[in-house]
Design brief:
It contains 18 helices and seven strands. The protein is of the alpha+beta class.
Length: 434
Amino acid sequence: MLAYGVAFGWVADWSHSRQRRLSQGWLLASLLVSFSVRWWLAPAFGSLAPWTLFRLGGWDAALWPGIGALLELAVILALTWDMVGQQAANPYSESQHQWARKVWEQELWLGRGEAAQVQEELASRGTAFLLSLRPAADVTVSTAAGTWLTLKIQGRSVPQDPQARWIDIDLRMYERSAEGKVKPARLSLLAAGLVSDAIFEALHRMPAATPERDTQATPSEEPDTPEELLPAVAALEGVRFEACLEAAKPHVRSGTRSIQADAWRLCALAHSRLAQWAAAGHDFERLFALEPSSHNALQIATTAVMAQDLTRGTHWFERAVEMNTSAQDMPPAKMRTAYLSSLSQAGHYDACQEHLEWLAQGYSAMGITDSTFVWMRGFPFFSEFLSKSAELLLHVMPAEQLQQWYEAKLAEVDEAGRAALVAHCACLAKSSGA
């Protein structure tokens, strides 16, 4: 069957069309031909073909081998249906009559920033904007860094055609939680974008960063880890949290303010990894005194909640929101979801409702639930919001009341959002009636 599947895949790849429906039509036609061939051929040496069995013993003898042949083709169809259809959307060289192949990948550093800003740069400056960035491999990201962005670029071409050069651009966002875990997220910004041969080759062979490029391209990137804190960083990355604390604590009294801040940050992360939330909150407060920011205020809020001090957590969250209003360090919705995560982990379900209402009002105010649109504004995907909010709110209200809550709070979402909401409420009704 393996050899048969490989041969069939080669025929499908050779004969597919640039039109999705036509490609899938070719696939179905090939399957019919394949089944007729398979009916006449034995599946292996020493066995008989279904047709031979039918001639010798009728349908009783040929039934199960025939069903086996159909199942083989069904597996091949399942494996190749989407592949053949998607191939039609891939870049194609008209002059060479060839599909483009991936020839390189590159990841570029953005540092801190917002997805919307990247979109604006691409819209105003085009793909030439990418040449002002530096390779991500040239950047050392501090273990204590909160969030950072990169661009993953894939180059595809037909070598014989100098006009056949395409790139795919994905935005990658990495967020390190208070526990030190890195959560990646991905957003497609450009699929099969046609670029000039000069830009294509320049992106492929981007040089290592120079001091001039450092200043212009990534003014907000994290500085290199101070030499004094390298043992603490290595211990944190090696999941040796006690050793990290032992190595970092002497430097919280350093005469250099930046080293003090990084030492307190490392202590906070290590205590968070050890689930010593009160100690982590103390460390984040000391860090806040040196680096007053909405992000650090939010860290104090989330660790306070995890330490079961909801009053203190609420105070610091309100302070973080107030600071972020003027500083705009991070999307307000992202602050809200980070705080919600700590509330849910700590079991404070009653306190979740007001923050879920804030998010629901945000979806209604935007009126758009498109995944890319909401993600670029810091909101969770709408489907994720529905599932997560149900998990939390079912702790404080019955399913029938929750359906009414959704109807009241999400009345102004778009057609796609309404359809998702109707399906979600139907699932709630079904589960509550079970």
